[in-house]
Amino acid sequence: MKTIKSNPHYIVIFAFALSFLAGSCGNDNTKKDKTQKDVAKENTTNTALKKALTFYASFDQGVQADFALGDPQLYTVPSRKARDSAQVGIHKENISIAKDKGLKGDALLYTSNGKGYIYYTSKDNIAYNTNNWNGAVSFWLNLDPATDLEPGYCDPIQITDVSYNDASIWVDFTKDNPRDFRLGVIGDKTVWKKDTTVSDNDDQDFIKQLLPVSKPPFAKGTWTHILINFKSLNTEIGETSLYINGELKGKRENITDPFTWELDKSNIYLGLGYIGLMDELSIYNRNLTQKEITTLYTLENGVHTLLK
């Protein structure tokens, strides 16, 4: 029988090949494990957001909220004081549902600055608390403020029982170009208003409660995500922050003024002076983490993803 002598070079090469194959298999498993971990983290974040959700309107099937712990209906009134004349649905010629114009599906479209107001009620849709109030408000806007908006202040959203200057949460565009974008979290007017000789918009005690953003990244045909975060309101350590497209743009701490509501009179007003598109309005019962804010900004199918 012919004997084949072992070649040490072949043995080294063979051993190296086995090591390479084993390493490759190990790397594939590691990649799979990382992917599974990422999916698990994503599911955990989505579950946490769903648990915190109190209200969601996608505007894909009209204006009735897709999810609401309170009243899901949208109302129209000719003025804030005309509550008895409130009508269910949109009853303003300048507001409609824009088919397939939304971030996902349909959107709410404002074509001019008309009289009257539309709103959802705050009760149970907002987790208002007289002792320790926490929450977050998320929505998307599509407009060019410089060319779309009419002269004057514009509040895409305003949550209050009275007005913008009294126990309210809102964002606005300032009245003149180039327009700043501002977050207002304003306590009871009877507490902060000291100088009655100046208008509120010129009052330094009012202005210091605002978080302004210069040159905000809004553009025609582009969707911009807005997230209002707040916690510990109605305590001595209240704070609020504003995020745009997932990035922190400003934070205010040590908010001590109280926020006193007649809850049955408080509403979530939409589109005060606004002209453009709005979509994916969602509200949460606590302030959100950076991870959760990033998740909201990047959800492939919008907040519908959380409801599955």
Give structural notes.
The chain is an alpha+beta fold. It is built from 6 helices and 17 strands. The protein has a single domain, classed as Jelly Rolls (Sandwich), CATH 2.60.120. Strands 1, 2, 5, 6, 8, 13, 14, 15 and 17 form a 9-stranded antiparallel sheet that branches. Strand 10 and strand 11 form a beta hairpin. It starts with 7 loop residues before the first helix and ends with a helix. The N terminus is likely disordered.
What would you say about this model in short?
The chain is α+β, with helices and mostly antiparallel strands and 308 residues long. The chain has helices at 8-52, 145-148, 189-192, 204-207, 290-298, 304-307; strands at 53-57, 67-68, 75-77, 87-88, 95-98, 107-110, 117-121, 133-142, 154-163, 166-173, 181-186, 210-213, 224-233, 238-244, 247-255, 267-272, 276-284.
* Share of residues in helices: 10-25%
Strand content: 25-35%
| Number of spatially distinct domains | 1
Head-to-tail CA distance between termini? 71 Å
Low-confidence spans: pLDDT under 50, at least 5 residues? Answer: 1-26
